[in-house]
TrEMBL record:
Signal peptide: none
A single GO molecular function term of this UniProt record: hydrolase activity, acting on glycosyl bonds
The organism's place on the tree of life at top rank: Bacteria
Protein name, as recorded: Putative 3-methyladenine DNA glycosylase
Top-level enzyme category: hydrolase
EC numbers for this chain: 3.2.2.-
Pfam families in the cross-refs: Pur_DNA_glyco
Similarity comment: family membership: Belongs to the DNA glycosylase MPG family.
InterPro entries reported in the protein's UniProt record: Formyl_transferase-like_C_sf, MPG, MPG_sf
NCBIfam families, per the entry: 3mg (TIGR00567), PRK00802.1-3 (NF002003)
Keyword annotations: DNA damage, DNA repair, Glycosidase, Hydrolase
Keyword presence, Protein biosynthesis: no
UniProt cross-references to Gene3D superfamilies, sorted A to Z: Methylpurine-DNA glycosylase (MPG)
Amino acid sequence: MLDLTRDPCEVAPELLGAVIRTDVAIRIVEVEAYRGEVDPGSHAFRGLTKRNAAMFGPPGHLYVYYIYGMHWSANIVCWPEGQAGGVLLRAGEVIDNHELARERRPAAKTDRDLARGPARLAQALGIDGSFNGISLASGRIELLASGEPVESTSGPRVGVSGAGGTASYPWRFWIPGDRHVSPYRPGRS
C-alpha cells in the first residue's frame, strides 16, 4: 500500500493507475490534492468542523462529503492524524463489475462516463455518507497500488473558486490522453 502519511501533493500522482474497489473496481485516472489549513481550496482551510473531521483523522481513511445538495464525493485522507489533507478521487475507468456500475449510473450514455467526475465515481462505487471515516483496510473498500509509475501531468483544480483554483495551485493530476479524465472547468472567481 502507498505511504499515505505524506503530503497530499506527493501522494496524488502516485494514486494514478491505482485501483479503488468496493463491489465495483475503478482504475484511478484523475485526482486533486488538498492541503488542509494552508490551502484556500480545501474544506479544512478554516479548521476542524463536524463536516470535515474525517480529513483530520488517520491517513488511509475516506473523507466523504455531500456537494450541491445531491452528490457524494470521496477523498483519501493523507498526512498524519491531526493534520488535514486529502486527495479527491476525480475520475476513473471501471475495470470490474460494469453491470453494477451501469445500474448505479443509469444516466451514463457510455462506459467512458461511468466514473468520469468525482460524483459519478462515488456513485459507480456505491459510496455514500456511510463511507465517511471508513478505513481503506475495512474490507468494505480497498486501495490497490498500481505497482508501476504512471505518466502524469498537472494543472489547476476543477471548479475550485478563488485563489485555490488558480494556476498557483496546480494540484490536479491526471493521466494525459486517458479518455476517462473529466473536462477542465474553472471555478467562479
